[in-house]
Amino acid sequence: MMRSRLLALGIGVGLLGATAVAAPAQAADVVSAPLTLSTADAQKVATFWLADGGANLRSATPHAPAVEVQGERTSGAVVPPGKAGLVTPVPPEADGELPRTSGKVFFVGADGRPHWCSGTAVQSQYRNLVATAAHCVYDMEGSPATVSKWAFVPGYSEGSTPSGLYVGKHAFVHGDFTQYGDHDRDFAFVTAYSGVVSSSSGALATNGRLVDIVGGQGLAFNQSTTPTVDVFGYPAGPHPDGTRPYTGETLERSTGQTFVMRLSAPPADQPIGVDSPFTGAGSLGASWLEGYSDDHRLGYLNGITTGVSDTDGDGRYDTGVSPYFDSGLYTIFRAAAASWTGRII
After folding, report:
1. How far is 136 from 36, CA to CA, in rounded Å?
2. Cβ contacts of 270 within 8 Å, gap of 6 or more
3. What's the alpha-carbon Rg for the chain, to the nearest Å?
4. Are strands 85-87 and 218-221 parallel, antiparallel or unpaired?
5. Closest listed residue to residue 185, CA positions, set 34, 72, 333
6. Which domains occur in the chain, in start order?
7. Residue pLDDT, tens place only, 248-297
8. Cβ proximity of 157 and 251 under 8 Å
């Protein structure tokens, strides 16, 4: 049970329950960029995705940069750079409504076409954060630049927006990602405006703050153990052998042990792997939840899929890869968590 886990950890359910901070926030590490410039701009983004019954949502294709990585599993141990910390998950405020934190991140890429990744709602002071891969916020083909028309749809399933659509306001990433494309820093936290839905007349109506509506996952960083995690995402691409077991239209879940990886391409200092059969395209940004409770549908985000690998060479992906969640990640989270958004209507 999630409650017993929280009590065992000695922390209560609250707005922001980080038990330890490994190091003071380093402002130079934080790169923040606006995704929308005004509420009027945000309204246009929402209309783009919700118009014509969500036609652009349904026509979007999975974002697929170079997500296949080359590497091997090791027996090495994680070396935390500081004290371990936790941010406590919270359920939605609405009575009887179970959290639906996982969803799709939608955006228009540099090619001018709509794409999507996976993402998840994370608890923070203003209940407005989405965690995903930095590649799902920044286009790294040329000079680093944010994508356009960024929005999050929690609980997405076959074109539906059951909990509304949440337009991104600001993106927060690590400077090593935008400057060097560092695979160890391929994570992002995005602040989102309160959600919107289409009324019967076609006009936009306010839904509510993201975490109030769907709940918010917790966050774990500087953890020394390698536990079992549950991976939630929307895989859609093929395996190397050409088989396509996933459609990307519904949320998928896999459960596996984590371990330290050694990558040859792209290089990374301390990547983490997980036993997972997810294919690459579509699962970029998928959440890794430690201590996940089926009763509460809550856990602690402790990884984000940034690549997949076929480590045994049988033509099928067997491993998801994530940056290690360390003090640097918490620095970016804390900067994003302090950013208020508000409504667009």
Report:
1. 16
2. 78, 79, 184, 260, 324, 326
3. 18
4. antiparallel
5. 333
6. 2-337 (2.40.10.120)
7. 999 999 999 999 998 887 778 889 999 999 999 999 999 999 999 999 99
8. yes
